[in-house]
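Lecture 7 notes: from sequence to structure.

We start with a single chain of 178 residues. Read the sequence below before looking at the structure.
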Amino acid sequence: MVRSDARENRARILVAAREAFTENSGASMNQVAQRAGVGAGTLYRNFPTREALVLAVYQDEVARLTGSVSDLLAELPPLEALRCWTLELVEAMRQKHGLGDALGAGAHQAMADQSRGPVIAALTRLLDAGKADGVIREDADPGDFLQFTGALWRAESGPGDRAPRMLALILDGLRPRA
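Now the structure, written as tokens:
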């Protein structure tokens, strides 16, 4: 069993690393440790390499995102839950782009391989809820939807963020045919 202070240190390191790598993909391990308020030994005990830390940050974000589906479906109609979740996914992918600058090609593939299954499972739940409510067409496929969202995180962000408009077009395409 992991001690509570060790869990708290690990969580603080992940938060600090996410912030540091998002601001500057070249942030050092020492900068992350300082930001988290832990010593270098604690950081390296948890994450022996920079790549391990970046991958853990990404895995933590995927787990948070995929874990939010139940709450969204409990609070919102399925199509709105899908819209909100997809916008969160877009933001996570934009941040991942910054994290990805800190990794080599092999780690990029590892991130994609580790996240695809949980993301597809989350999308399946969201699409199935919409199909059950009759607001999403029966042939909607989570893999196809994920492919479309790849264009969203590459869209212009900031004041003229195009992702919400583009997502509205994608969601319109999910509606059942008359």
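The two ends are 56 Å apart (CA to CA). Keep this in mind for problem set 3.
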